[in-house]
């Protein structure tokens, strides 16, 4: 399916919206316990249960509106369903907290395999957004690969060492801020290895 023209705000809204809803819902029910079918569930588990169909609806909407889903979006949706589902089914929040670790490890390993083959698989995903020279893509891919592994380690430290509430704040704001800051610090690389406009 060919890519479609959509309002510029729509894609980020569909990607970030479910996370914002998750965070707001968690704040509302974080201290409550619910009894369903004779079984007690913490608020975090119920919010996770609601997040699964929400992220699926958002992913389908993105596909319908843009005509395209990146591998990262597909894998993320699948892992949310699998590990979010395990958390709800087993009434164990640890599975959902592990999900970011696995996502970042998976993408880090994937980029690493590409690097071992002398290729930048990051380029296949982001070339339309950031046109760079070949050398620039290889440098950026190595940095992003290391960054993914660092995020995976950081998520493990946070969820294993701190409260659920701390992890939710970290997941909602900390990871987002870390990704933003990382790419902001790559400005020198983007400038050095930018592809020149050949029309000039």
TrEMBL record:
InterPro entries listed in its UniProt record: YciB (IPR006008)
GO CC terms, sorted: plasma membrane
Keyword terms: Cell inner membrane, Cell membrane, Membrane, Transmembrane, Transmembrane helix
Predominant location: membrane
Compartments reported by the entry: Cell inner membrane
Membrane topology of the entry: Multi-pass membrane protein
Transmembrane segments: 12-29, 41-63, 69-90, 102-123, 135-154, 166-185
Keyword tRNA processing carried by entry: no
HAMAP family: YciB (MF_00189)
PANTHER family: INNER MEMBRANE-SPANNING PROTEIN YCIB, INTRACELLULAR SEPTATION PROTEIN A-RELATED
Similarity remark: Belongs to the YciB family.
Function: Plays a role in cell envelope biogenesis, maintenance of cell envelope integrity and membrane homeostasis.
Protein name: Inner membrane-spanning protein YciB
